[in-house]
């Protein structure tokens, strides 16, 4: 009896193990990670652990049900990971639970690979049928229940005695396994690159370690006072060794915007092809007649992208706001190094605007008290916006143009005692998804009755006048930027239905940028009427590309398999200044829209229109603004470089991937793009290190990445220790040897 009992339990557990490994193999092949993890043995070890747990259950039915539930969880996570890898190059980790509202509000069924999901579901259904067959055809013998319980109790006693030893020995065992690859051990212990960790250790290995890291972060307390003092002392020497940025400046730009009003707009999902003369004439004129950074790249979540222009870096090991893994967060810290705090000291009134709720990404908690904005305005603070009374869903966006028009006075307010305003706006309405026209039809060609129905049922209200205006892809783009080419092979390969849907999604996206353009046009004309345009500069940069429904792949003509093509992440960054630039714009047949004719100063001083083709990224926005304000900063404090300096910085995404000057590294492979032909050559990281053949671009890339991580380790210490609570950011800090640490200086 015992033999048959053990055989039956073995069949159940072994079936689960084979099925779990099969699901993992299909996933790996589907996302292009190979057939299985590099450390297959380690992954198998943890998979066997689950199989043994199932084996120990004192019920055949329980064993079958638990097996199916575990596989269902694995299938669900695998489908989510496939979508995340396709969109952002990352996989799900437990710290994402801190953003449950944000991710849950944005993630829709459009992201899911339904073919993969249904295939997995069919496989799962077949397995359920097989388990049912086993339960019916191979019944338990009389007395087997007692034997099963005896096995279960024996397993519990065994586990109780060995659990502490196994936990203690796991890292020692793994460290020994990685003795020849220290980097892999670091990857295992930190999971600093989720895609690479997943490829190395597989589903079971990755999530075993991820659970450990997550709960360690919850259980860890604050560092002790001696530890904080030790960290601060180390940071003193680190900042004392930092060079000041003025040595690399082009003096023609230094202080060019000192004392000028500044409008900083982060364009949600901004793309160069969305800035065109046909549908966004004011933005197009500012980009083409202003100063455009045509080689600007970014790949990050919105909250990180906007924060980088405020902080110059971002903590990885700590949360800004309190979270599941970090109960205190950093809200009580002193962030005197932020852009708003610097400008507050310079006589600026600082404002932040965003037409979403203040608790989304905890913006209300962070932007005013911590980041230093004197006033912040969110959806609930702006009763003139329809959504302030409540939104139907996350995608029920308010119009950016209405925010700017209705709150123009607050937008340009200069408080008593100040000389200028600095206003930052995170735009919203160009955010995906872009399904209204796909679901309800192209508004421009609907009957009157259908138009009324459209206006009632569409998710995003008030864009109808733009839908009437947009009647095709634009033809006029900012020179030397990714545009919509007539020979786009991606579009030519689509079926008629797919082509129509892609165009309708583009049209909804373009309508969002047109709405932002309408708001900026109204603001420009207001400032011109008040004779303030000559004293105001506009700075625009995009947070990330337009990735919903792979719109960026389709319209930039990049294969879906080529997420390493840096063209995907080449997005807008441009500056226009009324102090030294003219502005001649076209018109739009939109109510209240006015063309602009503004003649700026003609002088050899100040910013000049043109293009900068140096590689730059989101880290560089803050250093650029500091130079334009006439500041020199300690280069150990921020990751970026001013676009007007001789240096360039590497971009390390919080999602996945590292970019620098036509090199993309996903943690596994270097992809080097030839500037002339556009061809991309891959180099496996580990093979490259062992090879005698070297590539100049990669050789320049690697030390920049190493320098980034070294700096980030000190900046993590700065955030953790609340360094500037005891150090004067403006005046500096005197060292025992008589030298003064300088963090910021006026030039």
What can you tell me about this protein's structure?
This protein is α/β, with parallel strands linked by helices and 747 residues long. It folds into 2 domains: 2-219, no CATH class; 245-746, Alkaline Phosphatase, subunit A. Helices cover 45% and strands 10% of the residues. It is built from 24 helices and 21 strands. The chain has an 8-stranded mixed beta sheet, with helices on both faces. The chain has a 5-stranded antiparallel beta sheet with strand order 14-15-16-17-18. A hairpin with a 3-residue loop joins strand 16 (663-665) and strand 17. Helix 2 (40-56) packs across helix 8, helix 7 (182-190) crosses helix 8 and helix 9 (225-240) packs across helix 24 (696-721). The chain is globular, with a radius of gyration of 28 Å. The protein starts with a helix and ends with a strand.
Which terms summarize this structure?
alpha/beta, Alkaline Phosphatase, subunit A, 747 residues, 10% strand, eight-stranded mixed beta sheet, 24 helices, single chain
Q: In brief, what are we looking at here?
A:
With about 750 residues, this protein is α/β, with parallel strands linked by helices. The protein is built from 24 helices and 21 strands.
Summed over residues and divided by their number, the pLDDT gives a mean of: 89
Task: Flag low-confidence runs.
Answer: 157-169
Can you summarize the main beta sheet?
8 strands, mixed
User: Helical stretch count?
Assistant: 24
Helices and strands in order, then pairings?
Layout: H1 2-30, H2 40-56, H3 60-88, H4 100-106, H5 114-137, H6 144-177, H7 182-190, H8 194-219, H9 225-240, E1 261-267, H10 281-289, E2 291-293, E3 296-297, H11 302-311, H12 339-345, E4 348-354, H13 363-367, E5 375-377, H14 400-406, H15 408-411, E6 420-426, H16 436-440, H17 448-457, H18 464-469, H19 489-492, H20 496-529, E7 536-542, H21 551-555, E8 573-577, E9 583-584, E10 597-598, E11 610-612, E12 616-617, H22 621-628, E13 631-633, E14 651-652, E15 658-660, E16 663-665, E17 669-673, E18 680-684, H23 685-690, H24 696-721, E19 733-734, E20 740-741, E21 744-746
Parallel strand pairs: 1-6, 1-7, 2-11, 3-12, 4-5, 4-6
Antiparallel strand pairs: 2-8, 7-8, 9-10, 13-21, 14-15, 15-16, 16-17, 17-18, 19-20
């Amino acid at each position: 009896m015992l033999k048959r009992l053990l055989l039956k339990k073995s069949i159940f557990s072994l079936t689960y193990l084979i099925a779990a490994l099969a699901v993992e193999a299909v996933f790996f092949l589907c996302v292009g990670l190979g057939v299985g993890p590099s450390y297959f043995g380690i992954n198998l070890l943890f998979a066997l652990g689950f199989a043994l747990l199932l084996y120990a259950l004192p019920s055949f039915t329980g064993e079958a049900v638990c097996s199916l539930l575990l596989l269902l969880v694995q299938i669900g996570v695998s489908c989510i990971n496939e979508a995340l890898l396709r969109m952002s190059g990352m996989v799900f980790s437990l710290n994402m639970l801190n953003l449950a509202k944000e991710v849950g509000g944005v993630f829709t069924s459009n992201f899911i690979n339904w073919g993969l999901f249904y295939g997995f579901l069919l496989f799962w259904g077949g397995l359920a049928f097989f388990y049912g067959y086993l339960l019916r055809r191979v019944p338990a013998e009389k007395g087997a229940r007692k034997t099963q319980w005896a096995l279960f109790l024996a397993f519990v006693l065994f586990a109780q005695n060995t659990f502490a030893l196994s936990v203690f020995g796991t890292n020692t065992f793994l460290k020994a396994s990685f003795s020849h690859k220290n980097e892999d051990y670091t990857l295992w212990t930190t999971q600093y690159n989720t895609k690479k960790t997943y490829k190395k250790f597989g589903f079971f290995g990755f999530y075993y370690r991820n659970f450990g890291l997550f709960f360690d972060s919850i259980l860890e307390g604050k560092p002790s006072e001696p530890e904080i003092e030790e960290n601060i002392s180390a940071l003193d020497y680190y900042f004392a060794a930092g060079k000041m940025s003025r040595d690399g400046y082009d003096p023609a730009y230094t202080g060019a915007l000192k004392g000028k009003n500044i409008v900083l707009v982060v364009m949600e999902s901004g793309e160069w092809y969305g800035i065109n003369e046909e549908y966004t004439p004011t933005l197009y004129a500012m980009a083409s007649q202003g100063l455009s950074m045509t080689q600007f790249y970014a790949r990050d979540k919105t909250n990180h992208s906007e924060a980088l222009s405020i902080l110059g870096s971002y903590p990885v090991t700590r949360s800004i706001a309190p979270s599941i893994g970090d109960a205190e967060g950093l809200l009580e810290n002193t962030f005197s190094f932020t852009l708003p705090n610097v400008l507050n000291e310079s006589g600026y009134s600082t404002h932040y605007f965003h037409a979403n709720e203040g608790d989304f990404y905890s913006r209300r908690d962070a932007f005013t008290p911590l980041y230093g904005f004197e006033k912040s305005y969110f959806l609930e603070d702006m009763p003139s916006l329809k959504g302030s009374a409540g939104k139907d869903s996350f995608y029920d966006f308010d119009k950016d143009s209405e925010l700017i028009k209705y709150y123009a006075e607050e937008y340009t307010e200069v408080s008593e005692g100040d000389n200028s305003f600095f206003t930052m706006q995170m735009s919203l309405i160009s955010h995906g998804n872009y399904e209204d026209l796909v679901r309800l039809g192209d508004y421009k060609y609907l009957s009157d009755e259908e138009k009324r129905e459209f206006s009632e049922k569409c998710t995003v209200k008030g864009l109808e006048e733009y839908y009437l205006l947009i009647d095709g892809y634009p033809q006029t783009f900012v020179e030397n930027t990714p545009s919509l080419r007539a020979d786009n092979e991606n579009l030519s390969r689509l079926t008629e239905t797919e082509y129509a849907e892609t165009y309708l999604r583009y049209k909804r996206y373009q309508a969002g940028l047109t709405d932002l353009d309408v708001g900026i046009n109204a603001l420009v004309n207001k400032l011109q009427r008040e004779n303030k345009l000559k004293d105001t500069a506009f700075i625009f940069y995009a947070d990330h590309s337009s990735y919903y429904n792979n719109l960026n792949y389709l319209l930039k003509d990049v294969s879906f398999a080529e997420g390493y093509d840096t063209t995907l992440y080449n997005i807008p960054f441009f500056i226009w200044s009324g102090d030294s630039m003219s502005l001649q714009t076209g018109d739009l047949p939109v109510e209240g829209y006015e063309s602009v004719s503004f003649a700026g100063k003609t002088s050899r001083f100040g910013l000049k229109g043109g293009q900068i083709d140096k590689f730059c990224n989101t880290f560089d926005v803050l250093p650029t603004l500091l130079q334009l304000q006439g500041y020199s900063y300690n280069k150990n404090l921020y990751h970026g470089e001013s676009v007007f300096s001789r240096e360039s910085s590497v971009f390390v995404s919080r999602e996945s991937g590292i970019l620098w000057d036509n090199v993309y590294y996903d943690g596994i492979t270097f992809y080097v793009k030839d500037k002339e032909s556009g061809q991309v050559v891959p180099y496996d990281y580990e093979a490259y290190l062992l090879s005698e053949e070297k590539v100049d671009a990669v050789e320049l890339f690697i030390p920049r990445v190493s320098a980034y991580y070294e700096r980030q380790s000190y900046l993590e210490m700065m955030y953790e220790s609340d360094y500037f609570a005891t150090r004067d950011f403006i005046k500096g800090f005197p060292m025992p040897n008589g030298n003064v640490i300088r963090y910021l200086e006026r030039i």
